[in-house]
Amino acid sequence: MAPPIDAREKLGTALRQALTQTPLSKISVSALTRSAGVTRQAFYYHFNSLNDLNAWVFRTEVTAHLTTSSGEWLDAIEATMTWMHAHHDETAAAMKTIEANDLWAFLASHIQELIESRLPSSASATARDVVAQHFALATTAHMAQWMLSGLEVNPSLAIARMRVLMTDQTTPALGRLAK
User: Fold this and answer.
1) pLDDT-based confidence at 4, cuts 50/70/90?
2) Residue 3 pLDDT > 80, yes or no?
3) Do residues 63 and 155 lie in contact, with contact meaning Cβ atoms separated by under 8 Å?
4) 136 and which of 21, 73, 112, 170 could share a cystine (Cβ 3.0–4.6 Å)?
């Protein structure tokens, strides 16, 4: 038997579906709860507002894009940025809802985990942590600049710049730290 789907998941699914046809600013809690088959009370138990739900969906989507990629870590960054670009309104609303420090810390920590998972396990834990943190912070800064500029630049162009600077740089950095 499949585990029950909780109200948050139902509301997240309903919001994703609604956003395919309606801008976030035109979606009501009433319509969303009807679509999700949950009560307004359940909505307000989990979320303070539609923007709060949107921020939760944003975090869920970003986490999924960063953790499901099996290729190079920059491929996961590109997939994440492509999703953000394709969901411009939701991303912009999430950026307004989530405190800036929380948003950048969220991105940096998930990107650091992603990078560290791709580093050779033969390197010391300290070296892996230092290298992953460095490249995560650099990547987060590139993403922040791109996001704060309104997500206007095609993510493929933004990621191309990162690839020039970061491709094949983690292993040499680990080597330099081992000396």
Assistant:
1) low
2) no
3) no
4) 112
SS (H, E, C) 121-176: CCCCHHHHHHHHHHHHHHHHHHHHHHHHCCCCCCHHHHHHHHHHHHCCCHHHHHHH
Nearest to 107 by CA among 126, 115, 117: 115
Burial letters 36-45, b for 16+ CB under 10 A, else e:
bebeeebbee
Task: Please report, in angstroms and rounded to a whole number, the separation of the first and last CA atoms in the chain.
Answer: 54
Q: How far apart are CA 138 and CA 48, in angstroms?
A: 33
- For the beta carbon of residue 104, count every other beta carbon within 10 angstroms: 17
CA distance 117 to 131: 12
Please give the C-alpha separations between residue 70 and each of 67, 76, 106, 122, in angstroms, as whole numbers: 8, 8, 21, 20
Give the whole-number percent of the chain exceeding pLDDT 70.
Answer: 97
Domains and CATH numbers, the chain: 1-47 (1.10.10.60), 49-178 (1.10.357.10)
113/95 Cα distance (integer angstroms): 22
Model confidence over 102-149: pLDDT tens digits?
Answer: 999 999 999 999 999 988 888 889 999 999 999 999 999 999 999 999
